[in-house]
Amino acid sequence: MAGKALLDIKGVETYYGNIRALNGVDVSVDEGEIVALIGANGAGKSTLMMTIFGTPRARSGSIVFNGTDITQMPTHEIARLRIAQSPEGRRIFPRMTVMENLQMGASLDNLKYYDEDVEKVFHLFPRLKERIGQRGGTLSGGEQQMLSIGRALMARPKLLLLDEPSLGLAPLIVKQIFDAIRELNRTQGLTVFLVEQNAFGALKLATRGYVMVNGNVTMSGSGAELLANPEIRAAYLEGGRH
Amino acid sequence: MQYFIQQLINGLTLGSIYGLIAIGYTMVYGIIGMINFAHGDIFMIGAFIALIVFLALTSLFYSVPVVIALLIMMIVAMLMTSLYNWTIEKVAYRPLRGSFRLAPLITAIGMSIALSNFVQVTQGPRNKPIPQMVSRVYEIGGISISLKQIIIVVVTAVLLTLFWYLVNKTSLGRAQRACEQDRKMAALLGIDVDRTISITFIMGASLAAVAGTLFLMYYGVVSFSDGFVPGVKAFTAAVLGGIGSLPGAVLGGLLIGFIESMWSAYFSIDYKDVAAFSILAIVLIFLPSGILGRPEVEKV
Predict the structure, then answer these.
(1) Nearest to B185 among A74, A91, A103 (CB)
(2) Under a CB-based contact definition with an 8 Å cutoff, are residues B110 and B99 in contact?
(3) To 5 degrees, how large is the angle CA A21–CA B183–CA A17?
(4) What is the pTM of this model?
(5) Mean pLDDT to the nearest integer, A4-10
(6) Pairing status of strand A34-39 against strand A5-16
(7) How many Å lie between the alpha carbon of A124 and the closest alpha carbon of chain B?
(8) Chain B residues within 8 A of A55 when measuring between CB atoms
(9) CA B51 to CA B73: how far, in whole Å?
(10) pLDDT tens, residue by residue, A11-51
């Protein structure tokens, strides 16, 4: 928890047409942290992730990354500041091979570090190496998830945004992915901001967490605090266990 | 048999020109999902610029080697038509991006009319002839192949090879394909989508300009209305091959060329367009997404 805020979101409001999806959200992510954002379906978590990239654009409030105000910056320029995202729905390029998808991730540096970085990605997700020549659209859901995260890592990000990395995956693979995130954070100091419905796993992984309900951040605290909070336990952790 | 081969060669020549134009339609459709109806007129403007360059060259110099003249005509035509198409995209299509689907289509038809009328007003409504640039004809076993035809086929083949390399093997081509498949994701990875779209319009225009130059050399004449019919045929070729597919555009172009020349040779030259469009209709009944096109539904 090295003090300086890498990402500072203040009072952000985002609309889809006339429908307000975010009602003045304040979130900050410090350098070297893993921050989790948990909440139910439709709470606005993914909207916040995309609003950071300006698509959709925040109608009010400000988003500052590494000292630069990115609220009105074009999407591709935001990416060039080294924020990478594995977005909702994974968004693999379906008619490109696994290799080409990874190359797209490395296009910021024009493939300068491709060979070196792709080995790291294969180390994390050996399965991708076996699938290197296969088209993205033909991969299984879990493989697409790995590819989406791998592609984001290829950009050498300062901040990695992960939207539901555990969605639709077998528990073993979820564990593998969470281990990989922890490992990247510990060894390379990668800052991670992740959205999860799998609140238990996410809060265990995270240094800090935020809880979002209907476009508002209603609670925040350290991962352990939130895990121990009875309200959160009732709403997000024990819902299915009666 | 000789007659058949002769027609095959004629069809190949015609089909090459259609194929070059068709790529512009199919690429633009692939990346922004609209039919650039002004593309046929971009082809016509390419031919006109080649004509102007030809006249300038012949009046400035006593004699210019044909190869050099053709090369200069092509390059100038490519540059100028690229500028036209780039500008059209910027002023007429980009502001409408994200608007309802028919808006850019209507604008494209408007641009098409604007371009052909602009040329009509500035260059006059009459046919503009040029003297024969290349006249040699080879006779091989009773089949005559003109040097013009050889030039057309060779230039097309070289350009298509370069183009294939550009799209499949370079980072620019990769960015283009990424934008085609998921524009938002491409932007998230730092790709400047607007710039990539501009480059696509420039590439399409360049190929159309070459087609225009070859058209002028082959027929020796061009008029302001010459964008329409070849434009529609090339568009047909793109649809026939599968809109959005680059090999499809070339294949479709060749097919339309063959159908036209065969029909003219064996049946009736007056009905050659009817034949081409009838075959389009028949193919689309059985293969709605064209010969090499992919079905719209996709498991992702």
Answers:
(1) A91
(2) no
(3) 25
(4) 0.90
(5) 91
(6) unpaired
(7) 21
(8) 184, 187
(9) 8
(10) 999 999 999 999 999 999 999 999 999 988 889 999 999 99
Residue B230 pLDDT > 50, yes or no? yes
> If we measure between CA atoms, which residue out of A68, A14, A7, A52 comes closest to residue A33?
A7
* Helix (H), strand (E) at residue A65: strand A60-65
At B132-186, the pLDDT tens digits run 888 899 998 888 899 999 999 999 999 999 999 999 999 999 999 999 999 999 9
pLDDT in tens, A137-190: 999 988 999 999 999 999 999 999 999 988 878 888 888 889 989 999 999 899
Res. B278: pLDDT tops 50 = yes
Cα A213 to chain centroid distance, Å, stands at 18
What is the third-level CATH fold of A1-82+157-242?
Rossmann fold (3.40.50)
Q: Given 3-state DSSP classes, what are the helix, strand and coil percentages for chain A, each rounded to the nearest 5?
A: 40, 30, 30
CB contact under 8 A, B190 and A155: yes
> Residue B14: its pLDDT value, please?
94
- B86's tokens: 């780039």
Domain ranges in chain A are 1-82+157-242, 90-156
The structure tokens listed for B39 are 């593309």
Question: Phi and psi of A65, rounded to 5°?
Answer: -120, 120
CB contact set of A12 (below 8 Å; sequence gap of 6+)? A22, A24, A25, A26, A48, A51, A58, A60, A61, A62, A63
For A106-122, how does the pLDDT look when each residue is reduced to its tens digit (9 = 90+)? 999 989 999 999 999 99
Residue B26 near residue B248, CB atoms below 8 Å = yes
Contact A91 B175 (CB under 8 A): no
Residue from A47, A86, A91, A98 whose CB has the most chain B CBs within 10 Å, to mutate: A91
Q: Give the torsion through C-alpha atoms of B121, B124, B125, B128, to 10 deg.
A: -140
Kindly report, residue by residue over B73-114, the tens digit of the pLDDT.
Answer: 999 999 999 999 999 999 999 999 888 888 999 999 999 999
As beta bridge partners, residue B46 has: none
Give residues with Cβ within 8 angstroms of A182, minimum separation 6.
A34, A205
Q: Does B299 touch chain A (CB under 8 A)?
A: yes
Q: Of the candidates A79, A94, A107, which has its C-beta nearest B300's C-beta?
A: A94
A242 pLDDT band, cuts 50/70/90, is very low
- In this structure, what token pair is assigned to residue B195? 């710039």
**ipTM score here?**
0.92
Beta strands in B141-251 (DSSP E): 143-146, 221-222
Nearest to B178 among A84, A104, A137 (CB): A104
B115 within 8 A of B38, measured Cβ to Cβ: yes
Residues 192-231 of B with CB under 8 A from A: 192-193
User: Which positions ≥6 away from B22 have C-beta within 8 Å?
Assistant: B234, B235, B237, B238, B241, B249, B250, B252, B253
